[in-house]
Amino acid sequence: MFRYIVKRLIEIIPIIFVVSLLIFFFIHLVPGDPVRLAAGKEATLEEIERVRQELGLDKPLLTQYINYMQNLLTGNLGHSLKTGLPISDMFENRFSVTMTLTFMSLGWALVLGLLIGTISAVFRNKWPDYVGMLTAISGISLPGFWLGLILIQVFSVTLGWFPTGGVDSWKSYVLPSLTLGAGIMSMLARFTRSSLLETLKEDFIRTGRAKGLKESVVVRKHALKNSMIPVVTIAGLQFGFLLGGSVVVETVFSIPGMGRLLIDSIAFRDYPVVQAVILLFSLEFILVNLLVDILYKALNPKIRYDS
Amino acid sequence: MKKASFLRTASVLLFSVALLFGCSSGGGSGSGTPAASNGGATTGAPQKDQLVIAVNENFITMDPQNTGDALSSGVQSAMFEGLLIYDKDLKLMPGLSTEYSVNKDATEYTFKLRQNVKFHDGTPFNAEAVKINFDRMSNKDNNLRAYRNYKYIKSTEVVDEHTVKVTLNQPFSAMINKFTTGIISPAALEKYGKDITKNPVGTGPYKFVEWVQGDHLTVELNPDHWNKGAAKVGKIVYKPVPENGSRVAMLKTGEADVIYPLPEQQVETLNGEEGVKVERTPSTITRYVSINMLKKPFDDPRVRQAINHAVDKDAFIKVVKSGYGAQLESVMSPTIAHYAKQGTYEYNIEKAKQLLKEAGYENGFTTDIWGNTNSDTMKGMQFIQQQLQKVGITVEVKSMEEATLSDEIYGIKSPEEAKMNMWYVSWSSADPDNAMRSLFSSENFPPAGANTAFYKNDLVDQSIKEATQSSDQDKQKQLYGVVQENVFKDAPWIFLAVDEILYGKRANVNGVYITPSGGIYVREAAFQ
């Protein structure tokens, strides 16, 4: 197991290298000139050339890439073309905000999703199932944009319970995490239900029931744990996506997170920031995937990684 | 039975989750609405002392000498002052200077500086400080945005402790408007170097507290300001809130005291809302369609005039701007100095058809219009498309993401290479030089400048040049009048509208204004 993890961690290096290469050259392929945008509409040609030189964008692409990688290896993410600030400064606050939002959203989505999914499976085709699945369908089909604005209208404007946005206290995170988690909760509920229904048909469940175990024990101890593999996969994937920040939710609730930073930077062709953000996302994704694989083993000891 | 017991467990669980959420929200309501805790919590006093201004975008920099966006300058105006400053109606008034004189050729400007002024870091403001700032901006190697205007400065001379003389390398009458650029503490410039962008130190009525990237920027009252007492609010927090609906919600709950911009479509929902006021003011923003005059059939003035006659400007304002705006009756907004009203191309389809016939396009033609992906822009372009259809001109709407669009328009090697036919766009300027020289002087054809219509008229070129070389206001007025008259007649644009600035504020907020150029004026901020 330990060897497996070390091996996976070492694999990250070539992946990150390839990712960095792809982002670097792809972003430069996109039309649009950050120098033009930085210098403004009235800039003279002379000014534009001066800014281009200062930003080092006049050099051949390969040279730029080598410079970039050299900096990266020494832990220097570079400076934003738009604000001139060090990228690490721009990440500082935004990363923790996105992390908090991710954990809060995934947290409630997991609790409620598993609960609804389990109830629905146990009471298949009875009213708790219908209620549960109706909730799940709604959660999945409500667009985050709309849900967010409705929550603001009800809980902020009318009732005044929560702020409309920002990240001033834990209260600021309630509405955004509800909005962000709704879809995931629904997906988890549906996956839990179908996976659990499959498991409940298995022989070992019949055996359990036959030897007189309480139904709650059968479901909790035997069925649920064995149904978790697809659920963990989905949760892991969603975790990865959430860490990338949700542009919609961050926009609606004015949250200074990673998603908005990426979108703003792409719009401005702020190459160094785009590269740094995507690199970070890739790294997060790889780590979360590793975590999921380790969880598989915990859930099903039959899975072995040492071979 | 077993199922029933499971259901019981499950429902207890579900119930406790519901309770948990219920409790937390109950706690929220118990501690008062966000609005109430806002001012009270920070000061501990009953009197509200913190003003929150929600705007639509992130601030980019706090170095006033290297700023290109209106929003960053809007925030900076609380902390920085130039030798002159703009008042809320965009009139120049004394700032860090009390009086000035200009020679006739507009090459020498002498300023008497305000005395006993201190920067926020305690260092004195004097002629030496002005010289350091002007030298910083006029030095090419510093690569500052302000260099564009300060490159005209040949030398800045310290005459005495409170007098500076600025000599230009060529006559430039519009320079007077550029002396509004904020003056930074030389000590801070020394201390922070490039990091001055996040450590602003000026002389303004408010001083910098903190800037949390992407979240907010806070300033507090400067107790040593030379005009102390004018601004009364203790603290101002600027917050970027990109989503329109969220900004409006913040105003309703009182989390924000001022919101800008207020989208036209949302005005209705605020009208009649208790405790909220909607403010309107004419802006410096002109909205138009730039027409590429180098291309056929737009090289014929009759075609361009026909297009102007074919567009119903009143309907445009009603449909696209929700009724908030005025017809564009010159090449710039009436809020700008030396404005000369030219009237309007009356909406007359017959006349348009007649002109097209004279030009040999009786059966119309096919062309395209470019614009960004903003929903308002799309609406505007579709409106033009529908209007021109009536006179037989088929317009294809092409919306492009902003950076790509900018590349297509300005990234060309030579004017002949331009692919653009028509461009739906807007321009904001605070002075006539910027409104006219940038857009109609033939030296400013892209890629060298923003004359995207490729407009060339020798009389206009000459008048603009003469106007920049004279400090005589009457002469300037006359020359800029000639420019406006000729450009309007030549119709390099479809003249559409002058935008209105719309902003919302809580009824108890006084003395906070959004200026016609989108600046945020807080020099007299107070709560009732």
From TrEMBL, chain A:
Protein name per its UniProtKB record: Glutathione transport system permease protein GsiC
Transmembrane segments: 12-30, 101-123, 130-152, 172-191, 229-253, 273-296
Location(s), subcellular: Cell membrane
GO-annotated molecular function: nickel cation transmembrane transporter activity
PANTHER family tied to this protein: DIPEPTIDE TRANSPORT SYSTEM PERMEASE PROTEIN DPPB-RELATED (PTHR43163), GLUTATHIONE TRANSPORT SYSTEM PERMEASE PROTEIN GSIC (PTHR43163:SF5)
Keywords: Cell membrane, Ion transport, Membrane, Nickel, Nickel transport, Transmembrane, Transmembrane helix, Transport
SUPFAM superfamilies: MetI-like (SSF161098)
Assigned protein family: Belongs to the binding-protein-dependent transport system permease family. OppBC subfamily.
Subunit structure: The complex is composed of two ATP-binding proteins (NikD and NikE), two transmembrane proteins (NikB and NikC) and a solute-binding protein (NikA).
Domain (ABC transmembrane type-1) ranges: 95-292
Family annotation (InterPro entries): BPD_transp_1_N, MetI-like, MetI-like_sf, Opp2B
Membrane topology: Multi-pass membrane protein
Cellular component, GO annotation: plasma membrane
Organism this protein belongs to: Brevibacillus formosus
Function, as annotated: Part of the ABC transporter complex GsiABCD involved in glutathione import. Probably responsible for the translocation of the substrate across the membrane.
TrEMBL record, chain B:
A GO molecular function held by the record: peptide transmembrane transporter activity
UniProt keyword Iron present: no
Pfam families, per database record: SBP_bac_5 (PF00496)
One GO cellular component term noted in the UniProt record for this chain: ATP-binding cassette (ABC) transporter complex
BP-aspect Gene Ontology terms: dipeptide transport
Signal peptide span: 1-26
Zinc-finger found in the keyword field: no
Gene3D superfamilies: Dipeptide-binding Protein, Domain 1 (3.90.76.10), Dipeptide-binding Protein, Domain 3 (3.10.105.10), Periplasmic binding protein-like II (3.40.190.10)
Primary residence: periplasm
Compartment(s) of residence: Periplasm
Domain Solute-binding protein family per the UniProt entry, residue ranges: 91-444
Keywords associated with the record: Periplasm, Signal, Transport
PROSITE patterns: PROKAR_LIPOPROTEIN
PANTHER family, A to Z: GLUTATHIONE-BINDING PROTEIN GSIB (PTHR30290:SF32), PERIPLASMIC BINDING COMPONENT OF ABC TRANSPORTER (PTHR30290)
Family: Belongs to the bacterial solute-binding protein 5 family.
Function: Part of the ABC transporter complex GsiABCD involved in glutathione import. Binds glutathione.
Protein name listed in UniProt: Glutathione-binding protein GsiB
Organism: Brevibacillus formosus
